[in-house]
Every structure is written in C-alpha cells, then in structure tokens.
Automatic annotation (TrEMBL):
Keywords: Nucleus, tRNA processing. One of its GO terms (cellular component) is ribonuclease MRP complex. It comes from the Eukaryota. Residues 102-189 form the Pop1 N-terminal domain. It comes from Wallemia ichthyophaga. This is Uncharacterized protein.
Amino acid sequence: MISAAKQKKRAKANHARKIDTQLPSAINVEDHVKARQFEIKALFKAMDSAKSASSTRAFQSLPRHLRRRAASHNPMRVPLRLREKALAELSAPGDVSKLRRKRRKLLRTRMKKQQSSASRTATLRKRQTNKSWLETHIWHAKRMKMANLWGYRVARHPTEKSFRPSIRAARQGCIVHDASYTSLIQLSANQDDILRVLTAVLDRAGESPSSRRYIFGTREMHSYIYQLNAYPSAIIAPISLIWHPADGVRDKRSVWLRCHPSASAKVLETLQIAARGGAGDAEMCGDAEGATSPYTSAVTILNLTGHVNTFDLYGPHSSQVLAGAFKLAKENGRAERIAWQKLAKAATPAHLPTGFVAGFTVDDPRLSFPPRNTKPQKDKPIGVPLTLSTTLASSGIYDAEERRRVFKPRYKKSQLDSRRSVTAPGKPLAMTADDDTLPILIVQKTIEGGLKDSICGYSLIVPAGWGMQVWPSLTHTDARIGGVDQVDQFAAQVGAAHFPESACPTSTANWNEWRRRASEEEERVMKRPKGKRPHYHSPLPLVPFLEKPFDEMVVDAAEDVEVAMDGQLPTQPAERDPEEAKNSFKTDTNTSQWFMTDELVRLVQDELKKTKEAQEALNTTLSCLQVNKHVSVKDALVQVTLVPVKRGYVDTCGYVYNQGETVGRIATSTFAMNEGKAVAVANMRAETYFDFYSNKPHLERNVLVRGNDDDTLREYRIYCLK
C-alpha cells in the first residue's frame, strides 16, 4: 500500500519530465530524408560492414582471380590495409604466442638464407635440370597447376574453376596465355633459295609461301611441314610463317617459322636436310647471338627459341588490353600512330584481316602501370587498306642487335617505385630519355573449325628479358589467365583439332602425346583398388592408334560388326594381351598410313564433282600438284567435326561406326557452350568420308558413336568441308 504522500511525489516527478510537443499535420518525406541523408548512409554502411566482417575473412575481400591459396593462413600474403584484420583472425583472443613463434621461425629461416653463399638465381637454376622455366614461371606457379611438358615447366590451368569463365572470357572479354614455349626458327638467304627450301617441305595443297599475300611480310601464313620429298605422307606438324618485310629486295631475305616445341627438333632437322640438299653444301658454325646456326652457305638456319617471348590473347577485348598495357614511343611514325588508334578502338580482332602483322615501338610498360583499358567502338571495323603495308609490318624485333640491346631492362622495379613515390598518387611516371623503349610485334590469329564459329585474338611477340615486365600490365586488366588446357579447349569449342593432342594424327608428336596421356591414365587407374577400377575394352584406353592405325579401331576390314540404328551394342573388339598392346605401341608412325589436310580434302572434293571414284580424284589432284607418289585413299585419314543429332556426349577415344564397321575414333570432344550441345573431332577413314560427301545429302550424313567405356550408341552428324 503506497501512501498518499508518495503518490503525490511520483506524480510531480513524472510531470516534470514530460515535454510538451505538437506533431505536424503532415510530413514532407523528401525533405525529411534529404535532411538526414548522411545519417541514413552511415547506418547502411555500418550494417554492411558489420555483416561482412562477421561472415568473411580478410583474404576473401580480394577478387577471386587475385587470391592465392597461401593467403588463408599467411597474413603477409594479403594487402597491407587488411593485414591487421588478418592477424586478428588468425590469433586467438589474448594469445599471440603461436604467431610470435612463427615470426621467430621465419626470421631464423631468412637469416640462414642470407648467410648461404648460393644466390637465389643459382638456387632456382638447380631446379631446372630436366626442364626450362618461362620468364613468368614464378608468377604462374603461385596461381596455376604446373606440369612438365615438351621440355618446359608450363601452366596447365588455373587452380580455380575455369572451364566456363575461360570460354566466357574468350567470347565476351579477353584471356591471356603465356606461349613463350613456342619454337622459333629463322631462315636467311636469297629469296629464291628460301623458297626452294620451303617448297620442298611445306604443304603443296595450301597457299604458297611465294604468294603476294605473304611475301611482303604483312600477313602470317599457316601451313604444314612434311619430311623432305614425302608429301602427302610423313606429316610433321603445323607451322606459321612470317616473312621479314622488304620492299622489292630479293638478295637478302629472312623468314620466321613458328612451331610447337613437341615437333621443333624434327622441324629443324627437316629444314637442315632440305637446305643441304637444295641449296648446296653447308657446315656447322656458331652465332654471335648465341643461337645455333648450322649453315653458313646459301641458307642460314638459326634456332631463335628463347630469344623472344610470346603472349597469346583471345577474345573481343584483346585490342583494348593491348592499348591499355602499352603506350607508343615518340619514334613511331604517323602510319603507326593512326593504326594504333584504330586498333585500340576496334570492337573485335575479327575486324582485322586474318594473319595481319604490325610492328610498333612502345615505352616501358611499367611507367604507365596500372593499365587503363580503352573503350571499343562497336560495329565500326578497321579500314583494311591502312593496315596492310610493309611500313607498318616492320619491327625492330626482327633485328638481332636490337634484341640484344633491350635484353636487360635498364631500371629495376624498385628504382621505378622510388620514382613513383615522389610523384602524385595515381599519376603515371613521365618518360625520360634514359628510359627503355622496346619493339613489339602484333599478329592477328583466328581459330576456326568445322562449326560456323571462330575465336579471334592476337599473338604478342616481345624481346626476351621483358616477360615479367610486360606480363603484369596484361594481367592487371579485365583479362583472365589461361594455360595450355584452355588453348586446347578453345579449339575444341569451334570443332577444330589442336596440335599435338588431336591434330596431325599420324605425326610422331601426336603419338608421343597420346603415349604420355595413356601412361598418366594408366597410372591413375592403377592407384585405385581392383574393385573400383573402370573396365576398358583395350589395355591402353587413351591411345587411338596402336601399331596399325586401325588395329583396335577397325578390328578387321573383312570382319563385319553388327550395328543397328536402334541403339544396340555392336560386337566388341577382341581384347588383346596388355604386354602385346604395349609392345605394339611405337613412337614412330606407320609408313602406309597418312593424313589428309583440309586443303587437300577440298581439292579432292572438287575433283569428285567430275568423277565419283575417290581414288581417281586423289590421283588427279596429286598429279596437278606435281606429286609423283602413289598413295591409297584406303590408307588415308581425315578429320571431321561431329555433332549429336539429339542429346548425348561421347568422351575422347570413342568409336565411330558406319554400316557395320568401325570407321573412326574420337580425337577430342567437349561441350560447345555456344552451340548448347556436344561437339567432337574424329579421325575418320578418308574412303568413308568421300562416300558420305558424294552420295548422301547433308541431313543423312549420320554415324553411330560409342564411348570408350560406355555401351550406349548415339547418333552423330558429320560436317563435311565446304
């Protein structure tokens, strides 16, 4: 029971605390929000910060493509502004003893390294005993899966998921790949002597290296190289050829041949034999630049592998990446400046002529770091007459003295950082007379296949010694990074074969590649328990061709294999003893079997319009090419693009059936994102292919395909060359 006095005292206190107010009849919401705009924004920002801090770690604030695996447990791998937060996340509240012990351990390790006599360069060189590192190796090793391939330690693919993002970048953005492992061979002599050597070993069904389209050095030529006087059999590898620009000078010309490193030794040997047989005697000698120069007579052959760096860019935004990474030097002429401006504004490299070659001189890209991409002008292609000129195609990178001059950058990165520290933040360094300028070469490239689709880009060639000086400017753009798996993936997306995995199936390089893959697959399978191993129909499932090209693929020409269009399984090939299969697998190809290139196939198809006999059409075509060699169409292979009629997917090494017999094997297969269905490239009997082309309309050129470890038959349609 509360007394009356206490009740009066409580009422008096409540009345004293009451504030008389009068609410307005209406509120102007817009004015009310504007008056409190700062407080509202601060509230939302605080809410977002609290939510992010409680659900994400410090290293997760970085973009996914810039993260490294070590950042999750090493606070020194995150940016300085986030390092304090990373330290707080790693250490328990009030307990930093573990972190201190780790710091002391790192300090002792660092002191031991400083006391050791061996330098960092000498230590790293010991790890390159059986392979070579690219200049960007350490950068890639932190972010990519590495592998020993073709004598190099190359990046296979990014550590993150990259199948769809890489294709999306090649279609809508840009993806960069370090292809500095590409072999480079230079031929120097009189123009007629060079043409004599090239004609003896290149594909005669394709375009000639003496064509006005390529002889002036304004375009890159693509062809195939064969053993001397062995055409159309004994194919070695595909090559690309660039003439050094010259205005009507025939006495002293040079040409660059670029090829895959898996076949570089065979290509170099073939060129040496052709030069010795077609251009007189030759003797071994050295070269002042350090390259091997086997011949000093009519034709001089130099192996310039490792004297330049090559970076491949794929995607419609490749032009903007180049324009953002480099800044033209003052010594460029008016033609180069106009071409550079048009190149920077190009909507896609497809607007340039195929194989277009241009040379520029650029400033040190580190001076203008970080790069700023330009904006493309959509639907405005570049004018062709301006781009095709010997003046624009000329570059100092062709000159050995120029490459030697810029081999070592004049300033280190630390020296440039010291200059940058005294300038305004975000402002690029001003070019001085002592700063480096370097020559570059830009080559337009296009990947085309059996589908109505292509992927375009550039090959950027820079002097050796500038790999890590140029690479950050290319990667700190919107471009993604790809490895050798991505390059193979792009070719498969458009229905094209890629060397050495699937192109040139009768070449030694292709055989070695499949043997390596078979060994890796066998090792992977044998690690699993017997009850968990998949059942394969042949001991070496990933080898499409054994001792005889159709030993496992065709079984026997006289043996019929029952195949029904309703999806029933055909008779299985007879299983062979594993030791017998391994012994029959050789690194050298069968001399009776040969591969028909697309150019030769098109010529034979033209002759088939006059005669229905494939062998007669082939003989007529070879006689027109002045090839005095009789080869059988029954021993020939062609590569075709296969697309499923309905749904389904068949992996690599699947069997291709037609009317009761095996007529081919799947060389590569993938899911084409642009088509929304599977696409495969198959090695097929030329005789069966020409029968399809001559006697069946397009909609009836169907075959059955069965997976290597799958019993399901799927109907695929063949896309013949046009």
